[in-house]
Amino acid sequence: MEFIQFTWLIPLIPLLAFVIVGLFGGKFKNGLGSVAILSAIAAFVLSAIVSYEYFTGDLFAAGLAYIPEPIEWIAFGTYTLNFGIYVDSLTCVMMLFSSFISMLIFVYSIGYMGGEGKRKRRYYAEIALFLAGMLGLIVSSNYLEMFIFWEIMGVCSYLLIGFWSFKHPDGDEASVKAASAAKKAFLVTRLGDVCFMTGLFVLLWAFGSLDFTAMFDDPVGSLVNGNGTTIMIGTLLLFGGVIGKSAQFPLQDWLPDAMAGPTTVSALIHAATMVKAGVYLVARSYPLFVQNAEMMLIVAVIGGVTAFIAASMALNNMNLKRVLAYSTISQLGYMIMALGAGGYMIATEMAHGAADIDGAVGYTAGVFHMMNHAFFKALLFMCAGSVIHAVGTEDMRRMGGLGKKMKITSWTMLIGCLSIAGFPFFSGFWSKDMIMEAVMEPAVAGAASVFLFLFVLALITAFMTAFYMFRLWFMTFAGKPKDEKLHCHGESPVSMTLPLVILSVFAALSGFLMFFWLNDIITFNVIGGAFVVGGHGHEGMDILHEILYNQWTYVSLALSLFGILLAYLMYAKKAIDPARLNAGGNTRIYRALTARYYFPQLYDEIALRLGYDVAKGVDYADRNLIDGTVNGISNAMMGSSGMLRKLHSGHVQDYVAYMAVGVLAVFFVFYILIMTGGF
């Protein structure tokens, strides 16, 4: 029996868990959290079996996807919308690490959410539905199906970020902030979702279908038929959805506020799942995106700018989770930049008539970093949750000296920090340097000005990443305990520390997978003019040689080490006073960073000046046009019925008179018609 035919069960299992927990969880003390955990375990196990069957089968060897017969969903005119399954190497990689990390987060929740009482039912139901949405998006066979699961994740994100909108552990003010953060995340990401939805209409008109098979098999033919501009508009709109969901410039500001939710939610949304959905959409849509070099240039620039500005905003932030949130935005920018750079090279070579392109470095680097980031960022968020669970605050200024009381948390978080900083030979080191190579490649090939600029931004971002991550670690675990540490109860329970230990292993070693089999899985090739995901990629030893013998590897490494050293001198050894460098927080740069480059104020101004006027116009149309039409018809019917009601007097003579008038009217009409020749 082939388990790959049961791929549809992977999102269905957590969906069933959502129903069971939602209906019956209130009757159990733990809110049926065990059901949600078992569903995540089952989804991961089935994902592993399906992936094994695919990678060892003939389809992967031939560079083909597993696509069973889809179910016809909607048919109108010449268009047919289907519901089906699409399994290729990208699908397998994405659902493996998403289900695995989600499983660990669910287990971690046993300890972290243990004191939530009856609200645990709501929590476990929502995270189960969230996992179903993410896995459903991954295995979708067309864009409309993907969009449905995309929106399910958006709703769950809103509910989970606002989980503490009522009775927040820190009081009413924190509850208000949680509710505000949830609404902000929902509204900002809706801007991207509207772009995504509009893009679907454009692509449906261009291709006549939203199925991946119809759109990816021969997109070049559609371009020849004159749809090149239409496809670029459609892909630009799809990328608008990416900007919203993956918090890219200029819609990046919702994600730091989303830290108002439980830390487990932050780990789930901002490490393994939702924010990765945008990166996955770009990787999945590569056959469309690479048709236009200008499109990929836009993608690369947005990613590079996002990586830089988000990293800079983490430099002086004192909130433990917000620093990790800015880090997430920055690393997502790295991924998008790599995909853009790789796609630019493919588009350029295709424009020069190349029919065979062996392995896009940018694609491999972006997907590789997406996987590595899921491990070390989930680890970092869960370590942060362990610290918050122990000390009851997110303010790093009130922390310090925790390394002696929380040894497991401190050591595992150190591994996460080393990985994200690109320290040799942790997982982040390999994928970060591949991204640097991917960005430098088009700079050498001809787009020097733009990609050299992006490369410089990437180098500076690498320095800032190392600095702010070790600033976080030293402020939290090194030095002398502060007053808040009097309330530290020691290490977190095993249900929380065990996932940390498991994730730390992957954060340290997952990069080495590139030298075994991963290099042939996360690749994108052009063979005979056709696009192939998976198959032959760059050899592991070639990648190792390129990294070790590339001078820029050592420039990036030197900058990262300098960032770590500077953080040590400032926040551990206290040899440099941070207040002297920023003039006590009175410099313009410091104030701009604290104000998030004034993006919240910009959002408010746009909402006030544009959104308010639009809302007033919509309100006027609703009251006077829509309600006016409905009320007018209603009043007309009421008035006419009142007049007709008066005709029913109950007197027989009145009815006889009406009949006589009616008969005379009929005779009069016939007379007119006869006299005018109507008959």
Description:
The chain is globular. A hairpin with a 2-residue loop joins β3 (524-527) and β4. 71% of the residues lie in helices and 3% in strands. The model has no long low-confidence stretch (mean pLDDT 86). The chain folds into three domains: 1-141; 142-594, no CATH class; 600-676, no CATH class. The protein has helices spanning 9-24, 33-55, 58-61, 89-112, 119-139, 143-161, 172-207, 212-216, 219-245, 254-257, 263-272, 274-284, 286-289, 293-313, 320-351, 361-391, 407-420, 427-445, 448-477, 494-509, 540-548, 551-571, 578-581, 588-594, 599-647, 652-675, and strands at 71-76, 79-83, 524-527, 530-533. The protein is mostly helical. The strands form two sheets. Strands 1-2 form a two-stranded antiparallel ribbon. A two-stranded antiparallel ribbon has the order 3-4.
Q: Could you provide a short overview of the structure?
A:
Helices cover 71% and strands 3% of the residues.
> Biggest sheet, strands in spatial order?
1-2
Radius of gyration (Å): 30 Å
Tally of extended strands? Answer: 4
Based on Cα principal axes, name the global outline.
globular
- In the predicted model, the low-confidence regions spanning at least 5 consecutive residues are none
The biggest beta sheet is recorded as: 2 strands, antiparallel
Structural class: mainly alpha
Mean pLDDT across all amino acids:
86
